[in-house]
Amino acid sequence: MTPSSSAVNPHVTIVPPRFDRPEVEIRASTRRKKTGAAHWSGSRIVVQIPARVRGRERVAFVDELVERLLSQRPQLSAGDAALEERAHVLAELYLEGVRAASVRWVSNQQSRWASCSPSTREIRVSSRLRQCPEWVIDAVLVHELAHLIEADHSSAFYLLADRHPRQGDSALFLEGYALGLGLRIETGDVDAAG
Ligand SMILES: [Zn+2]
C-alpha cells in the first residue's frame, strides 16, 4: 500500500479576475467529499472543492464559496493591515492598481466616513464603518482610492469611483446609517495639500 493511492496534489485551475471579483484559484481534491472551503491568498481567492463536482455544478459550487467569502465581515476584528490589503485588492479590481501610501482606521473622524490626502496619499476610514457590511466599506475604499487619481468630485472622478457596482447603494446605506447614529456627515472628504 502506498500513500499515492489517494491523490496528493489537488488539480488546480485559475479563473481570471472579473469586474466583480478577484482571481480565483480552484483546487479540486479527491480527499474532499462534500464540503468546500475558500480563503484569501494575497489578492487571490483560493477555493477548495471536491474533485467529483464538475461542470455547471462546479461553477455554482465555486461561485457560492466565493460570494460567501466576499460577504464576510472580517473588518469587525481586522486591523489596519487587513484594511490596507483590502484596499490593494479593490485597487487591482477597479482602479488599475493605484496605491495609497497608507490605509488605516481612525476613531477621531466624527463628521466623515473616510478621507483622503492626495498629497501624502493617505486614506483614513472612520472606525464607525467597522459595523457596516463589507460591500459598503469596499465602496467607500474605492471612492477614496479614486481620489488618488482625481482629487475633486468631478465627472471624471465619478467615472472612476462608480466602477464599484454598489456605489449608489452604499451612499444610501450610509445616509440611513448617519440618521440612525444622529450624525451630520460632511460631503468634503479630500484634504487639501498642506
Ligand atoms: Zn470624495
Description of the molecule:
It is a single chain. This protein is α/β, with parallel strands linked by helices. The chain has helices at residues 55-71, 80-94, 134-146, 155-161, 167-181; strands at residues 11-15, 24-29, 37-41, 44-50, 102-106, 114-117, 122-126. The chain folds into 2 domains: 3-72, no CATH class; 75-181, Zincin-like. The chain has 5 helices and 7 strands. α2 packs across α3. The protein starts with 10 loop residues before the first strand and ends in a 13-residue tail after the last helix. Zinc ion (ZN) binds next to loops. Residues 143, 147, 153, 189-190 line the site of zinc ion (ZN).
Note the gap between the termini: 71 Å
| Adjacency order of strands in the biggest sheet | 1-2-4-3
- The CATH C-level name of the largest domain is Alpha Beta
Helix-and-strand structural type: alpha/beta
- Unreliable segments (pLDDT under 50, ≥5 consecutive)? 1-7
Short summary:
With 194 residues, the protein is of the alpha/beta class.
Topology (elements, then pairings):
Blueprint: E1 11-15, E2 24-29, E3 37-41, E4 44-50, H1 55-71, H2 80-94, E5 102-106, E6 114-117, E7 122-126, H3 134-146, H4 155-161, H5 167-181
Parallel strand pairs: 2-4, 5-7
Antiparallel strand pairs: 1-2, 3-4, 6-7
Helix pairs in contact: 2-3, 3-4, 3-5
Zinc ion (ZN) binds near residues 143, 147, 153, 189 and 190.
